Amino acid sequence: MKENHEELDQELNDTQLDPETEEVEVSEVEEEANELANLQAEFDEMEDKFLRARAEIANMANRGKNEREQLQKYRSQDLAKKLLPSIDNLERALATEVSDEQGASLKKGVEMVLESLKHALKEEGIEKIPAKGEPFDPTLHQAVQTVPATDELPADTIVEVLQEGYKLHDRVLRPTMVIVAQ
Amino acid sequence: MKENHEELDQELNDTQLDPETEEVEVSEVEEEANELANLQAEFDEMEDKFLRARAEIANMANRGKNEREQLQKYRSQDLAKKLLPSIDNLERALATEVSDEQGASLKKGVEMVLESLKHALKEEGIEKIPAKGEPFDPTLHQAVQTVPATDELPADTIVEVLQEGYKLHDRVLRPTMVIVAQ
Questions:
Q1: Structural domain of residue B141, as residue ranges?
Q2: Nearest CA in chain B to A36
Q3: Contact yes or no for B79 and A107 at CB 8 A
Q4: CB-based contact B116:A89 (threshold 8 Å)
């Protein structure tokens, strides 16, 4: 566009040097008007491109913020999932009966570890899904077995937990495996 | 700018209707040339703004990608740090002597849990920092105590580990607390 501009200055000088050439001037006026119209169209187009780019920048900033928040919120998901079998095993180990003091001391130690593990998970937003005695919820629980409903255990109540389930904030890491009254 | 453009069309029509007014035409040519120069300047400015916005979009995309990669790489950092005391305690619990079969069975269970915990951590890029017998490295180890160096234990060698240290990829989660020969 610079070239056009310089050319125009030249044309303007020519015009001023020779005020007699009336016909040429009219055509020059026309030409310049065309040039102006073209340049205006180019400007409008460039302005449109700029406005779109600015909108895209705002969108990207928003999307980036949301993505970071999601990554942050669920960052512990993978490690937490991998820890669940260890917690199951610790709970299972604690079901072992011990008869002497050394065994009791070991058991006490393991209990404390389990507590501190659960505390660490809770701090990261990971908690056991409530199950026993709760109404069955297919988004949280997985029914592995059913038993006939009774007066004390109405239909769709969870009767027993076979494997504990956990969630991270609102996301289920592993559903609870349960026996449901039906 | 649209208004200017329409105005210009009008001026052009006036000009064509009255080819006699030579003086006016010259001034009109001048005026239009000015308008063209102004519009060109505005176009250049707009183009510059657009090019800057486009560069910013490319920068944001790059930054966003790097940020996501970093968040992903170190996502397990917080939970892993909170798990370290549990691992310390499990290792300590395993130091307990047991004398009967129940105690041995409990201990076996705890050993398996510790293995599966360490496996889970390793899969997330978390590993014990090598220490005993290694040369002391202040970026990985913390010297809590020193002992005189000997022929077998030259200066700056780690003699004993008081508390294990861990790193997540290249990042130290907790330095190893050590006794160093000096």
A1: 74-179
A2: B36
A3: no
A4: yes
Beta bridge partners of B126: B168
Whether residue B113 lies inside any domain: the answer is yes
Mutate to test the interface with A, among B14, B36, B99 (most CBs of A within 10 A): B36
The phi, psi pair for A163, rounded to 5°, reads -145, 130
With respect to residue A83, please indicate whether it lies within any of the assigned structural domains. yes
Per the domain annotation, does A105 fall within a domain?
yes
Closest Cβ–Cβ partner in B37, B71, B112 for A75: B71
Contact between chains at A39 and B43 (C-beta distance less than 8 A): yes
Give the Cα separation of A28 and B93 in Å (integer): 97
Pick the residue from chain B with its C-alpha nearest to A32: B32
Q: Between helices B22-73 and A2-17, what is the axis angle to 10°? A: 170
Q: Which residue of A has its CA nearest to B55?
A: A53
The enclosing domain of B100 has a CATH number of 2.30.22.10
Give, for all 182 residues of chain A, the pLDDT tens digit: 444 555 545 544 444 545 555 555 667 778 878 888 999 999 999 999 999 999 999 999 999 999 999 999 999 999 999 999 999 888 888 887 877 887 888 888 888 889 889 999 999 999 999 999 999 999 999 999 999 999 888 999 999 999 999 999 999 999 999 999 99
A55 occurs within a structural domain: no
